[in-house]
Amino acid sequence: MKPTIYDVAKEAGVSISTVSRVINNTGRIGEKTRKKVLEVVEQLNYHPSVVASALTGKRTCTIGLIIPDVANPFFAELSRSIEDHGRELGFNLLMCNTDNNPDTEEMYLSLLKQKSVDGIIIGTTTKNYNLLRELQKEHFPIALIAQDIPELMLDVVTVDDFLGGYMATSHLVSLGHEKIGCILGTLARTSEKYRYQAYRQVLEENGLDFDEDFVMHTDYSMEDSKRAALELLRSPKRPTAVFANYDSLAIGVYQAAKELGLKIPEDISVIGFDNTILASIVDPPLTTIAQPIHEMGQQVMDLLVQEIEGRKNTKRRLVLPPELIIRNSTKQIR
Amino acid sequence: MKPTIYDVAKEAGVSISTVSRVINNTGRIGEKTRKKVLEVVEQLNYHPSVVASALTGKRTCTIGLIIPDVANPFFAELSRSIEDHGRELGFNLLMCNTDNNPDTEEMYLSLLKQKSVDGIIIGTTTKNYNLLRELQKEHFPIALIAQDIPELMLDVVTVDDFLGGYMATSHLVSLGHEKIGCILGTLARTSEKYRYQAYRQVLEENGLDFDEDFVMHTDYSMEDSKRAALELLRSPKRPTAVFANYDSLAIGVYQAAKELGLKIPEDISVIGFDNTILASIVDPPLTTIAQPIHEMGQQVMDLLVQEIEGRKNTKRRLVLPPELIIRNSTKQIR
DNA sequence: CTGAAAGCGCTAACAA
DNA sequence: TTGTTAGCGCTTTCAG
């Protein structure tokens, strides 16, 4: 059987509280006793039970990560960076995929609390505001990543989506494009709304007509983006450039263009958003707006842990700068 | 404060054991008491603490998932399917990325035990055999995924890597290729070894010369695969086809070919392995060997849970059939 | 500096 | 059918 604190205490000839103290480095301990205890700990290969210590009010050192889908490269890369920093700070991640389904999300929220996680990081486009409000009222540590909920005062880390959308559209305009399509999801994410707003603003600032028919809605999948892009590109007043709100949607545009025999970027310029691995492996490599995924993961974990450790009493909104990554999918118009 | 079983008991006018019984559906309970208790549970929004019940010997309903890197699409997709099935069975996943670093892995193994997970799924190319043996001796539930360790008798789910390698190479041979390159990682994974063995066997069976110079080793990264492919394709005795042991390595070949102005599949045929999302989005779409990722995730979770619940006393090796997915990166040789 | 003892929230005999 | 009680392994006063 796994050794307990009692086994160590007995073997070392001290009381369990002494063992507890040396393990946790609390209180003052005689040098010899400490040494003796540590020795026995080593010898018995003793590892304190996180479960038991959690029951006495300590942390579980576990954090819930709620995302739409880890198979989505953006969230996969984000998860990875969050996990990396979590490991440095001593926290593990409980992975929860919801596909943005509110019921699944609600289920997870309640499950995570039952499991006494120390905090939760949310990357889904939640609509469970009331649930979040409750958690907030209980001062349960929550942080949002890559997605804001302006109505709620929570810790949040995002890229500057408006600026990103602005940069993307401006890039296209600067290349001489005047007919610019926009492929969105369902506008459920705030991030997407900002990008879209920026798109419209850039058009306006440049005296370009906004054409309702140039903005296409999708269910966020590549297939649906392909469908939307086909529609867009087959239209007689075909745009010369497309701003896809996510790299994955940009791939759909690639597929549609290929099917129609249109060359990127000669016939149509495409810009994405996220700078996931996808952007660099498609042909031609995708010009896109990079989110500082690595830093975002790190920062959100930092914020949450500060919250957990009570080292912070104000919520923070961290908005990181996006970066335009010019590759070969955009081109000066003839 | 979160309500405890005591709050419920008091409110319902029964003892805590009665509450415990109705919560867990154990023992016989009077219909009215059950109803009353359930009512109070609802009213107080009571959720039993997993931590406390774990301390009394019950499960934590948490499983450790040790993989090299969730940002790798293959493992991302696999994680997703494991998590999905875990959710159905009532288990959560603690995500652990190790980059195949034995120290990180050892750290996680010990951490997961401290956290009293009910079992562990391992997808890394571990070398910590001794650690695994110890866990095995304690009858700690462990299952291997996408990776075998023949020396250890554990539950394992893999694709038939030998057959997959056989199908891949045979496909190339059937297209008339006689000079076939092979891009490997470091041969640390058993799966890779089998694929490589099959490659050699197919060559032999078809009376084709095996050329040492045609097999390239990489560190599993796309960049390194590109480097290796450049070397391979620049050589005077350039192969007409390449079998890349992973889709990601195949992408490296694409990049090298592009750099050298070689057309796929006209100048060089490429076949990958895994059938991740990458295979379908590159241009041309990659012919590859599909692993039944979804089923693998499901099966490994099933096996592990059976083990955890003691419903199984023999270890199982499940070898699933691969499938050749012909797309456009392979072509009959002129 | 160290030990005794009272919990943390829940389960599982054992009684009643 | 229901209640009482002794832990599970650990932390934390409170004494000494």
TrEMBL record, chains A, B:
Keywords: DNA-binding, Transcription, Transcription regulation. Gene3D superfamilies: 3.40.50.2300, lambda repressor-like DNA-binding domains. Coiled coil: none annotated. This is LacI family transcriptional regulator. It comes from the Bacteria. InterPro entries: HTH_LacI, LacI/GalR-like_sensor, Lambda_DNA-bd_dom_sf, Peripla_BP_I. It comes from Fodinisporobacter ferrooxydans. CDD domains: HTH_LacI (cd01392), PBP1_LacI_sugar_binding-like (cd06267). Residues 3-57 form the HTH lacI-type domain.
